[in-house]
Every structure is written in C-alpha cells, then in structure tokens.
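Table S2 (continued). Query chain:
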Amino acid sequence: MPALARQLVKDRAKAAYLGLAIGDALGATVEFMTPNEIKATHGVHKNIIGGGWLKLKPGSVTDDTEMSLALGAALLACRRVDAKTIAEAFSVWMRSKPVDIGNTVRRGIVHYRNNSETSVAKSEFNAGNGACMRSLPIALATLGSDKESIKAASRLQAHITHHADLSDAGTEHIINLVQLALAGHSIGELDVATRAFVRNHPQFTLDVKTINNPGGFIVETLQAVLQVFYSTDDFESCLIDVVNRGGDADTTGAIAGMLAGACYGLQGIPNRWLKQLNPKIKTACATQAEDLLNIAPISVTALDNRGNSKNIKSLKLKHVGYQELDNGNRCTKGDQEP
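Corresponding output:
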C-alpha cells in the first residue's frame, strides 16, 4: 500500500476510535432522557460536559469506550483473537468497578467466571447493542481479512456476552461499514451496502419513522444511528443529531462516532470536542487504533456449518511484538505465536 494511502487509513482509524469516545462522552450526559427532556434541559446538547444520570466528570466515558479498550488490549496481548483472553479482560474491567455496565454484559462475564465458558447460550433476549458498541477493535484488527474471518472474529468477542442472530448481524454490518470507510469508500457506497444488508435482514429497515428514545435493542440502535448517519454530511451534525434523540445515547453516540470518524477523518472532528475529551482516554484511543492496524490482517479457521464460532478456539494474528493487558494478566507462552 502506498505511504499516502497508509496514512489515510491510519488517520481514519484514529478518527473512528476518537469518534467512538467522543460520541460516548457526549451522549452519556443525556442517556435515558427523551428528546423533549433534552430540549428543556440543554436546548440542543452539543458539548461534552459530563453529568447525566451517572454524574460523570466532563470528558469522561462509559462502558462503550472502556470495553473497546479492554478488547483491544486483549487482541494486542495475544496477537490473535483469543476468546479466553478477551473474556478475562472483560472480567478484569468489571472488577475495576466501572461507572456503568449493562445487565447482559454483566451476566455474560459472571457466566464466564462461574463456568470458564467464553460463550453464553444463544437467545433472542441477548440481542442488545453491547457487542456492537465495542466492536471497533475487531474492525481494525481484521482490516484486509476475508469475510468469513471477520465474521468469526466478531462472534468470538460478541458471544462472551451477546449471542443472538440479530446482534451478530448488526455488529457485523457495523464492522463492514467501518472497514469500507477506512478503505476510502464514499457514504453513498456505504448506503448501498446497508440497503443490501436490509434486504437480507428486513428487521433493520430504515424506512420507518424517526427513531427517538432508542433502547438497547440492536435493531433500534442501528436504525437510529444509520438514519442519522445517512441524513447528515459531517461528523458534528451526525453526533449532535443522534445523541439529541435521547435513549441509549452514549451507545448510539459511540457507534455513530466510530462510523462518522472513519468517514470524515481527523479533520472532521471539531477541535472543541478533542479538547473536552479526557486526555488519557484520547491518548489511549489514538494509540490503540494505530497498534491494532499494525496487527492486521487476521487469519482464521473456518466457522462451523451453522455459522457459529463455538468450535473455534482462537484466531491467530500476525506477530508484532508483545503487549500485556493493563491488569498484568497475559497470554501464556504456549498461547502465543513464536
């Protein structure tokens, strides 16, 4: 890849990760509020000010960003997608007493702790947005991989907490859109991909009334995010629109932020939001984005004939050097590539 093209991908990858964190921080202030409540309290909410039901400090993020960073650290620690390492990273994160954690995520991590299993049972009630919100590290680490490898990698991390057909489909579509944007495809080309996705998964149709106050169901989340993404033409407008719809606004903000960042790049992110974001989070996101690109693309064994990842123990990444998880846990030498 020419140097200029590599730099463009790196720029967009950093913007996607920073966009995720910015959308998370921006949306957290108005999470669980209705559009009318937001309007009465903030007018148009457009600055990262903290507060909200979590009483966050200005610039702080929630589980959307924190779980993404935990997932990315696990990928870098093993240089492959190893479900046990990812589950352990999530467990360590939960032990740190995060400011927020979803019920489905909590149950999945407790299931891992109690049973040493890295996949919860398949259930339609697991079709929340928790796997999708943290999927950006998979999108970056699998850039350039074939579709089956990307699907397998996505499901290995997702099924630790979320195991449902709709959740899988929605998460994999967001990964696809991010990767298309990183490769320089236009929003129009992403729209074509979404229309094809909706033909195969009509539950996600965007031809519905404006989704306000979206909940944690993956279908509502993606309808709200993609309605806004395809009806705006810059990063700022996209994020302001989606978080002012209220509901699960930190997650819709995070997913919209990763998409808009991948499309519009660093130059599209308002400087005030970069200044308002917690400096440590900003550095962690930018650094991890580049590190994950350095371990792409991924290689993977085949899925079983049902499209499940339960029989895949791990997916090896290119060797790029060793990085331990933040908590000091690491892959054993036997688990690492030479």
